[in-house]
Each structure stands twice: as structure tokens, then as C-alpha cells.
Predict the structure.
Amino acid sequence: METASAAPYVIGYIPARERQIPVVSTHLSARDVRAGWKVRWDIGRMKFSVAPGLYAAGTPTDASPVLVTANYKLTFDALRKELSGIDAWILVLDTKGVNVWCAAGKGTFGTRELERRILAVRLDTVVSHRTIILPQLGAPGVSAHEVQEATGFRVKYGPVRAGDIPAYLAQNQKKDQRMRTIEFPLADRMAIAPAELQHAWPILLCVLVGSALLALPFAAGFAGRYLLAAVPLVGAILVGTLAFPALLPFLPFRAFSVKGALLGIVWGLLAAFVEGASPASTAAFALISAAMVAFIAMNFTGSSTYTCQPGATMEVRRGVVPMAVTLLVGIGLAVLARVIGL
């Protein structure tokens, strides 16, 4: 974990009641951008956090607003880069390196942590007002009236997106409808695809090994048989990690696993048609692809605003067994098609 004293984004300190509060840069360096790109690919994700505590942007005074965020560095960076030319305090909660939306669902961006952090940084000695601004996506984890009772600070919920904070502050901390609206556009959906690609390598390994076994024996035609089995299934992984998030709003049904299963069936049938596969092989491709894409798609429930933590947990509990059965039936059909020639 990065610490405030060594963090490259700290550019100075402001004295506040016998202590030095770090001032953060509102410009993302090349190092910040590279680190963010790596985390998008799930490289170093579990250590990409900043030290919780109180920070300053610009030269805030006791009347400056207090913005609350998570200690996941991508979230922290998204906030500080929008504060160019703005004097504000940034209160960072210890969310265990998790973003605001997910941390609110897990309880780490929550009432008790917010209370502890306000008291720990002695916020009442830094600002003369008694208002803190939380991101709207953190609302599920926080009981505003309990925070006010415990700390004396009133909770206000700011915009959904950090990019709207300058306008929000300029409008005397008032939100319009656009600032309240939660969207999940294509760019946001595809931003999480690289990490899902990284997570899919065990599935890819199983596909490559399983395709090799189906293509046995090692004799004439092995390479052709191997490609006929592997290409559609590798394609199913790409469909789950890339096509699914791109098509998410347009796929029918509510459950991500069901959306993914439908997309997997379509892909399996299309791949079988292109290859001119037999009826049994066609069914095998459709079933295996359905199970694979459904499983990968289910992982996206924790990365979107389409569902909540209990909903994601329920979907996993209900979906694992049907996916496993579908996969096993599909594998069985693939073996029969290869051995018996159905």
C-alpha cells in the first residue's frame, strides 16, 4: 500500500492544528496513467490503494468543502484529477482497496468507517462547517443520520460521477437530474473487459487441453481436429469477455448468467454452422459455450450498477449448478460425437 509520506501524488503539506496535511496533485502523472492501465489488466490490483486519511487539493481553508472517497487508487485519482483549480479537502476511507460502489455493498464504505475516519482526522478542528459530501454510489453503505449523531457532520450525496463535481460545487452543491442519473455506457462496460480476460486464463487452459484430448490420437488430421474443437471454444471466451459487456443492455432477461447463456448458445450454433458440424457436435458447442459464457458473464455482476451485492450472491448460488450440468452434458455430447461419430 502506498503511504502519504512516500506517495508521488503528494506535492506539499498544509499545517492544520499542529499537524501537516498532505496536498495532492490534481494532475495525473505518466506513472499514474501507467499504473492505472496495469490495474485495468488486473496487474497489482490488490495493492493499488492509498493511505486512508485527510488530504488537501489546492489551498483549502476551514470553509472549503470536504469530499469523501475510497482508498482504491483509481477512485482516488478519478476524484483528484477533477479538482484542478478547486480548493477542497479529501477524506479517504479505508475500503481495503475497493472502489466506492463495491465497498458500499460490502460494508467497508460504510457508516462505522466514516465515523471512525472523521474522528481520527479530527475533522472538526480542520473545517468550521459541519457538512461532508459523499459520492452518490456510496449511499447504500451509509446511514446519514447515524453519522450525524456520532460526529456532528451532516452527510450530503454528490454526483454519481467525479467529472460532475466542479459543476456541482459551482452550483452551491446542488445536483441536476443528469448528475443523479446512474449510467453504464459502452466505455465503462468495456473498461472492465481486460481484467475479465486476465481472469479467464484457467478457462482457456482447460479449453486447450480438452480440445487436444478430443482431437486424439496424434496421427494424421490431429491438427485439423484440434482446431475444429478449440477455435469455437476459444471464441466463446472472447464472446464472454468482450461481446457480452458490449451487448449487455441489449440482451434479454435480467440475470447476467441467463443473458450470457443465451449469447453462448447463439455463438455455439453459429460456430457449428460455419464448421459444418454434425448435430451432436452442434449441440455440444451450444451447451459448452452457453455454460462458459454464462459463467464469465456472471462475473460482471460485481462490476456494474445493474445489480447489488445480495443480488449477485443469489445469482451465483442459483446459477452454478445449472451451468455445471450444462457443461458436463455438452462435454459428454462432444465425446460421443468424436467416438461414435454422431
